[in-house]
Write a structure and sequence with these properties.
Elements (H helix, E strand, L loop, with lengths): L1 H25 L6 H30 L2 H24 L5 H21 L1 H18 L2 H5 L2 H25 L1 E3 L2 E6 L4 E2 L2 H16 L5 H20 L3 H19 L2 H21 L1 H11 L10 H13 L22 H9 L1 H23 L4 H25 L17 H23 L1
């Protein structure tokens, strides 16, 4: 009976995810909130169904009544968050709101299956982040204040990265976190937002050669500190976001070409100057040469994705825990191994739909400052998704970047909520314009 239930739930989850993906792209057709409502209710119903099916399997396998209570707490949070957000922001983008809940649902299911304690901790972080960031759109409704404080925030951001380089807690071979005793956080997750604001302030009105060089120096300082801290994923995210913002601000293909060339030579220089960069590249090229050492993570990730196939082995039937840091860096591996390649592809497509929505919002904004912020945050989100999934499938070297709202990580969750909140306010501004 248990086997039958888990099999029914497994294939039902695949169907639900396919339907959700179709609605996610269908919602891109609509620019107004009123026209998007049908897709919104459909996507929310499918999200709740997906979460219910996943936790049904977990409850049967764990045989613990507390799982049912935890599922009820997640459902209650989802419904309250939707009601409060819709009440506060009647012109908010409904599709983006639904996508956030679907990403969180996938994350809660896999985290509960892999590490229930970490899942509960993630739930507390998500609820706290939701409360803290509910006012983000209202704050950015008055972006003049953001312009005035952007330079100060940029300086503070550089100082924070410097502190991490010198005093940061070494995690997974890199200086990523500042440990304050009762909690730790990853400054780069928040500095990337202040970086976008700073570059937007610098390029919003003037794009002469002096201003471009100043912005390039600031971007280079951020990148050098991050590479020295071995936070290669964050360095790439900063680089791509800067390059996109520079191109949109100047509309000069020459700057884009020069930036790409400079990035290429910077990668070569980093390879020869930093030993940890060489290790990452060699592990990427030959993961099975040192399978039980440096190549253990990418090797197990590839095995996990391969054994999952199209339909997955089913929750509790795979071995995703063999992949180191699976709940953070390689959560996509767990998705493919136990939920299946089809759901993995659907997850990628939903991320693309979310990215396209970001691009549409940024492209239709009139004022340069708002447009640059939208482009910068879009580049951050898209690059982060690409680095996480690309690293897990060995398309690029692993960079230790989390999949937004799916992977475990408090700093990542909070910063992603802030990014989505800012994009919601930009969408509302577009509606008003």
């Amino acid at each position: 009976m248990t086997t039958l239930l888990t099999s029914v739930c497994k294939y039902s989850m695949i169907i639900v995810m396919i339907l959700y993906t179709v609605l996610a792209f269908w919602s891109l057709r609509y620019k107004s909130v009123e026209n998007m409502r049908g897709c919104y209710w459909g996507m929310n119903l499918l999200t709740f169904s997906f979460l219910t099916l996943g936790f049904a399997v977990i409850a049967v396998k764990e045989r613990n009544i507390l799982i049912v209570g935890y599922y009820a707490a997640i459902m209650l949070y989802f419904m309250v968050y939707l009601l409060v957000y819709r009440h506060m922001y009647k012109k908010a983008n409904l599709a983006l709101l639904s996508h956030m809940l679907m990403f969180l649902s996938i994350g809660f299911i896999l985290l509960t299956r892999l590490n229930p304690k970490q899942s509960i901790k993630q739930y507390i972080i998500v609820v706290g982040s939701s409360v803290l960031t509910l006012i983000v759109p209202k704050m950015f409704a008055k972006l003049k204040a953001a312009r005035n404080w952007a330079i100060v925030m940029g300086i503070i951001g550089i100082l924070m990265l410097g502190i991490v380089l010198v005093l940061g807690k070494i995690t997974r071979g890199a200086n990523l976190y500042i440990n304050l005793g009762f909690f730790s956080f990853q400054p780069s997750e928040f500095v990337k937002i202040s970086f976008v604001l700073l570059i937007a302030v610098l390029l919003r009105e003037r794009t002469d050669i002096k201003r471009v060089l100043l912005s390039a120096v600031i971007a280079a300082v951020h990148g050098i500190i991050l590479v020295a801290s071995r936070d290669l994923g964050a360095a790439l995210i900063f680089f791509v976001s800067y390059l996109m913002m520079l191109y949109v601000a100047t509309k000069q293909k020459a700057y884009l070409f020069i930036g790409l060339i400079a990035g290429f030579f910077a990668c070569i220089a980093a390879y020869y100057l930093f030993a940890h960069v060489r290790v990452r590249v060699q592990t990427w090229l030959h993961p099975f040469a040192d399978f039980y050492g440096k190549g253990n993570q990418i090797g197990n990730s590839l095995f996990g994705i391969g054994t999952g196939g199209w339909f997955g082995q089913g929750l509790y039937k795979g071995q995703p825990s063999k992949t180191p840091e699976v709940i953070m860096d390689c959560i996509f591996t767990a998705v493919c191994e136990e939920l299946g390649g089809i759901i993995g592809i659907c997850l990628i497509l939903i991320c693309i739909a979310c990215l396209l929505m970001f691009i549409a919002v940024a492209a239709e904004l009139y004022l340069p400052f708002y447009k640059l912020i939208g482009i910068g945050l879009t580049a951050i989100y898209g690059t982060q998704v690409f680095l996480t999934i690309g690293g897990g499938i060995k398309f690029i070297p692993l960079t230790g970047v989390t999949l937004p709202l799916v992977s475990y990580g408090g700093s990542s969750v909070l910063s992603t909520f802030i990014i989505f909140g800012i994009m919601q306010e930009l969408y509302i501004k577009r509606q008003n314009e």
